[in-house]
Amino acid sequence: MRSALKRDIVIIGAGFAGSLLARLLALGGREVLLVERDQHPRFALGESSTPLAALSLERLARRYGQADLRSLAAHGRWRRDLADLRCGLKRGFTFYRHYPGVPYCNGETNDARFLIAASPSDAVADCQWMRADVDAYLMEQACAAGVDYRDRLEIVAAEPIAHGLRLRGRRDARDTIIEAGFVVDASGAGEVMARALGIESMRSSIAFSSRLVYAHFEGVTPFAEVAAGAGACLSEGPYADDWAAVHHLIDEGWIYALRFDDGVVSAGLLLDDTDADTGTDGDTATDTAHAPAGVSAEARWQGALERYPTLAEAFASARPRSPGLRSTGRLQRRCRHAAGKAWAMLPQAFAFFDPMFSTGIAWSLLGVERLAEMLTEKDVSTSGLARYAALLDLEADQLQALQEAAYAARVDFAVFRELSFLYFAFVSFDEIRHRLIDSTEEVGGTAWRGFLGADDADSRALFRQARERVTDALADGSSDARRRFSDWVAGAIGSRNLIGLGDSATHLYGIDLERLIARSALLGLTPTQMESLLPKLRG
């Protein structure tokens, strides 16, 4: 019998989060084995970063002395310091509403358009991550830090032993036995530890269902250019519409478009099959976009585009890059437990709901921060693991509630826009508070704050109410019902609405420094104090 490979820590999955965690732990003196079932470079989704993700990278750069992580946190620094890694400028979030059979139409008040800036300039803006490049780079940096990396090795079984876990891996039809003091599941949708340990799925508790058709494309015309050419009113916003995480809301679900600096566009069609009686992977709807499971990804994609003329024109000359269009089964998943004796999951292995608000990178990096802090110690306490698991559970509740409400609201653009204020108020408050006040805090403070206010009971109550409030507003449909919903949103975000959500008649939200000064009391600051701190927002 072959002897077992023994390591302090085994990390399953060499995506950006697994590789980054492996590197930090190796720098902290731990003996780390990083395993990956594929080979780099390889395609991966989860490409759109946010200011909270940038802040996490900057904290890690300070704490562990890794300057390149700070470079990854802003478009200007990335292009200057890491020019070989492809990325895209992301200035904010752009939303459009389309209707079948008619060209995109938008008026002076932007009844079908909504923009919200995430940064004041291109230099400090967020990035779209070309994951094939970023993941491979972070894996290489992990190896340079002393991590033992094994690719094409799939973990197929796990069992508890006296001092950790015994893993069985398979490579080229040969088994490898690994004994680990601690295992981190960074496999994302692979859910390796959930499958190996028989951890219960909570997928059935999620009140909506979507699946994805996706590819990288060349030759996509910027949507704003096509829409303006067709006569839509697109008044000047705080940034160019297409340099953002662009969301096209359609009857069938929604389409995202993420533009990279070299012209490549990552695009995906999220098909809402919430009402379909489909089980896990089936599909019973009858139109082409919601076609039965045997219909190709290409047919689903083209079937959706053909119903929306302006979108079809934007993609008329587009060519999918190899390996072409692909599709998924149901995206939504959640595990009963995020950690146990001698193991823990990173957030994306624990739960995933939808890419609607680009939460994946930021939440994953919080998990990296927390586990790096915990696992640098030789003995991981039971109480520390329980704290980690409990916080992820609260955060999953918060994200699930938000996405359930968003899918319910999606059919009415005005209701959806106001519902989104709940997300943008919470994240912008945390971003600005950290930039201006908490920027010198170490990981042990900020990283353990609940994502989207999940560690605050009042905040959790607001998110739990959201779907019911949306449903009531849509069911009634009267102006009084809409007004009640608007009033509820305004009250829900009041203590965090630093950026004036709801104040713009044109639904275009830039970085308004005067508004921040006027609302300084929300951060416990005087206007004079706020004004003196504002240069920190420029990075």
As a percent range, the share of helical residues equals 25-40%
Major beta-sheet overview: 9 strands, mixed
Overall geometry comes to globular
Rounded to the nearest angstrom, the distance between the terminal CA atoms is: 57 Å
**Which class best fits the helix and strand makeup?**
alpha/beta
Q: Which fold does the CATH topology of the largest domain refer to?
A: FAD/NAD(P)-binding domain
> Cα-atom Rg, whole angstroms?
23 Å
Average pLDDT metric: 93
The name of the CATH architecture of the largest domain is 3-Layer(bba) Sandwich
| Level-1 CATH class name of the largest domain | Alpha Beta
Number of domains: 3
Brief description of this entry?
The chain is of the alpha/beta class and 539 residues long. The chain folds into three domains: 1-85 and 130-201 and 336-380, FAD/NAD(P)-binding domain (3-Layer(bba) Sandwich), CATH 3.50.50.60; 87-128 and 207-327, D-Amino Acid Oxidase, Chain A, domain 2; 409-538, no CATH class.
Sequence-ordered SSE layout with sheet pairings:
Blueprint (H helix, E strand, L loop, with lengths): L4 E8 L3 H12 L4 E5 L14 H14 L2 H5 L3 H7 L5 E4 L1 E6 L15 E5 L8 E4 L1 H14 L3 E4 L2 E8 L2 E8 L2 E12 L6 H6 L12 E9 L4 H7 L15 E6 L2 E7 L5 E8 L24 H9 L3 H6 L4 E2 L5 E2 L5 E2 L4 E2 L2 E3 L1 H4 E2 L7 H16 L6 H28 L3 H24 L6 H4 L10 H20 L2 H15 L14 E2 L3 H6 L8 H7 L6
Parallel strand pairs: 1-2, 1-10, 2-7, 4-12, 5-21, 10-19
Antiparallel strand pairs: 3-6, 4-5, 8-9, 9-10, 11-14, 11-15, 11-16, 12-13, 13-14, 17-20, 18-19
